[in-house]
Amino acid sequence: MKGMTPILEVRDVSKTFDSVVQALDNVSIAVYRGEVVGVVGENGAGKSTLMKILAGVYAPDRGTLFLNGKKVSFPRNPKEAARRGISIVYQERGVIPHLRVYQFLFLGHEERYRGPFGLRKADMRKEARAILDEFHVACDTESFMYELPLATQKMVEIARAVLGIRLESRGEEVTPVIILDEPTAPLTLEERKELFASILRMKERASFIFVSHIIPEIMEFVNRVYVLRDGKLVAHYDFSKDTVTEEDLFRAIVGRESLAHILSEEESSVAPEVVLQAEGLTKNGAYYDVSFVLHRGECLGLFGPAGSGKSEIIRTLAGILEFDKGKLRVKGRDVSPDEPPYIRLARGVGYCSGESGKELFFHWSIAKNISVVNLEKVLHRHFPVIRFKREEEMAKTIVEKLGIKAPSVHTDCYSLSGGNKQKVSIGKWLERSPDILLLEDPTIGIDVGAREDIYGVLFEMKRRGIALILVSDDPKEYALLCDRILVMRKGRVERVMKAKEFQEMAVV
Amino acid sequence: MNSRRFLVFLGSNPVFLVLVGLVVLFSFLYPHRFLTGLNLTTILKQFVTLTLFALGPSMVVVMGSLDLSYVGIWMLGGILVWLLTPSLGFWSICIFPLLGLGTGLFIGVVHAKGKMPSFILTLCLLVVYWGLTAILSGGYSRVVRGYEFITAPLIPYVPTAFLWSLPLIVSAVYLMERTRIGLYLYAIGSNEEGAQLAGIPVTKYKIIAFALSGLFTGLGTIILFQHLGGSVPVELNLKNVVWPLVAIVLGGTPLVGGSGGPQRTLLGALTFSVFYRGLYLSLLHPEILQLLVGVLLIVSIIVGARGIKGVEIT
Amino acid sequence: MLSAILSQTWVRRNAGTLWPLLVAIAIVLGFQIANPAFLRYEGIITLIYAMSYFLIAACGLTFVIMMGSFDFAVPSVLKLAALLCVMYIGRFGFFAIPLALAVSLGIGVLNGVLLAYLRVPSFMATLGVSIVVEGIALYLSKGFLHIMYDERFRALATTFFLGLPTIFYWAIGIWALSTFLAICTPFGRRTYAIGGNLIAARLSGINVEKQRILVFALSGFLAGVAGVLYMAQLGGGSMLIGSDMSIPLFASVVAGGTALSGGSGGPHRTLLGVVIITWMQSGMLMLALGRDIQMVIFGLIAVAVAVATMDRKRTRVVK
User: Fold this and answer.
1) Which among A416, B49, B259, C229 has most CB atoms closer than 10 A?
2) What is the ipTM of this complex?
3) Min CA distance, B46 vs chain A (Å)?
4) Which residue of A has its CA nearest to B188?
């Protein structure tokens, strides 16, 4: 590869948001003809900012762009990016389900097919067929998009991106560079394999930038990988030359700093009582034959790459998804697969997500947001009437305990910072103290200080005898909080680790 | 191959089976009254009324919005024609498409820029137009002469209004099936965010959709004005608002948008006309008929809204 | 002192309540100037008669809009309840009232079930149901005018107490109860929660389906109460009862400050909206402005206030 001119190269790109948050700091990457380049990093590492700069959504503060060795300015909008050969396939919501395949392929580029009697459908179909054949996508041009399997939909989207580049560049010779933004997120395990196989077949027609944080996929499938962390380029591996293990990549993504300073000696709070038990839990296409027990006061981690089934499991436990096979027992009682969240909560299973849009009522005060799951506690003894005094006191206790920075408990939640919002959603569950609390990415996108406060709360929950189940992207979190960790891979539990083992693996 | 295609057609148009079933059923029930030339002409007349009202709005429903202003355009337009005939003569009929286009543009802009839910916006506008009609008419239904040629019989048993409405029907179907505008409306109805990501100017096309809906209603009301007697009522009759809606939904355009369209509305309008006429022949109490229409609306919506996942219903 | 009260933050915080209040005062003053009889005792009684039944129905609709849904069926349910009362009071005596209320409640529950379990968008479901209800009302009444001869029934609304008719106390009582229900009880909290953030409401352990049915049932029930009392007030009626109500009703809820986007406002706000709309209606009647002009004006007002109060940041896709 070296010696050739890269078809796309960016040098020393920097981007700052709101003049404080340094999203990208002197990052340089290059893409050669016919290769798949990985860009990996945790959430907030700067991957998507970089991609949006390439696709013309954001303008960088500094940096230069070279296409085929020639210096050019950065694209100002997605159309201009497409004209230069760069196009992006979004993670989700890009597909228009009710259009036919050929209609979707040409969407936004119909002006070329205008005829005297409306759009020339026959031509569109013929050209659609040609491009689908070129990219080895097996589907009927007459099918509706929603009829296709998800992996095929993704492939049609990729073909559409290439087609958009060809049509926009108007005959000039450009080599397409397609950015795939976490393309496998909505797919089942079987569909992923299919998608990879067909992307590899498309390689001679276009180069791909593959944005992901799924390590096994990266290892298997890309030629080279750039690792971003906190807006900086921290590593670059060429799999054809360097021998890299999954652990190496993992440590590069997470960072090598020692975890020792946050690992205090916590007394184990695990009690013998089993509060939740899963036997052979299966949801087809997501996870298979998952069994575990959870004790009072224990924190169980479901660890694995995105797509390993961990999020689906925790959502199943919360009552958001149904399971197909297996048994789930909460506090010794069997539960049915299709219970909605409110019944699960009545059984003592709470669900807390790091996405504040799923947790908070932004136009409500902190006090109301905290009391929404604790209404029984603030009601009058005899009548179903909310006692505002009690509600306020409850909120004040929580605000003080968690150090939520707000003028008062009556401040509306939308004016709070991300960390404080997150503390409000954790705080309401601390007050509720369910028997089991499911945590999905509890500290996503918040700063270190707020993180440590939240860890403090989670430890207190464990001491109180709340059993926790954690799903996160951050291995440090597992090492810090969990007593046992189920390592998931491709929808199955690969092994069960004790906290100590996991810490040794993660810290080294 | 052909039989397979036919099965696919039936699978996506279950209402076609309903239509055939109804025709067979009524032919058996009323052997001497249903399959007569007179009765079929009545059905065709009803079909013309429903189609001309529903043609434009079904484009908006494809986009996932709702346009209830059609009866308002007909009523206000009719009174304006009556007002303007003394000064403009024959050409005062042109007020219909102008009013329709203007109304559609207004609705489109307020809906797309002001983000006001279209059903309530168009309902308010309908009431405003009704009020204006009543004010301008002085409270009486006014008859305008000079457009009788629209309904003058040409071919036996075929209402001439039906012939006049053919070009409108064809152009509406053409617009939705063969042009970029139609394609974009389907795309917006199916996935608005995705359409935005694909580079479609969504706001602009929303306004276009309402403008087209208004324009088609306006053109249709030129025919309807004479078809329904050369005058307009000053009282709003709810059935005029609801029946075209039933035709749209019955035809298979789900309210959440993305599929269906004017060609489906034709089928819906025909089925509804047959259904109504059949019940009419049964000599049921007219209020019971009204009730059955309401039930039909609800049932067809329930069936039409089924199977769409990920759409939050409010 | 005064400057402290009228400081900018205070004004901004209470803008939602302040501007309807100012509009209400302006309307009263305006009509008073136009017609000096407006604020005499008789005039005030007319105003109270005009707003009372309206307020009861509007309280029910407010809950529905708070929840982010819509209920077109309120005027038709009101009509049906009123007609049931007048037609069956002779046969069943006072049992006609529970009958009318039970029917209204049932229609409300039906609306709720259509939304919650059959997933029909509420505006369409209630539109369909309202047509059915109109059909039933027409079938029962045969389109005739029915007169109420039972004086005891009429006394429910028209007895004077402290110089005001009893229907006023009914309305204010129901309004106060609704306000209490919305603000001080878990029922109200859950309603706001569903309108504010449906996903979060589900994850906070709210039984969304049940709550939706309950709220529509409440709306139907209050529409029934309004119908019964309105019939007692009028002493007779036909299919025309409540026929022009839907737009002013909607306008009064939204003008009070309960946005169509859901999750905000409340019955306490609706009082001012009802005052504005119904007093405007009466004022226009006094000025001999007809029903047609009223329709035009209220239609435009409804559009204007709905656009003004809509929360554009929160709702991404508006259909």
Assistant:
1) C229
2) 0.83
3) 31
4) A96
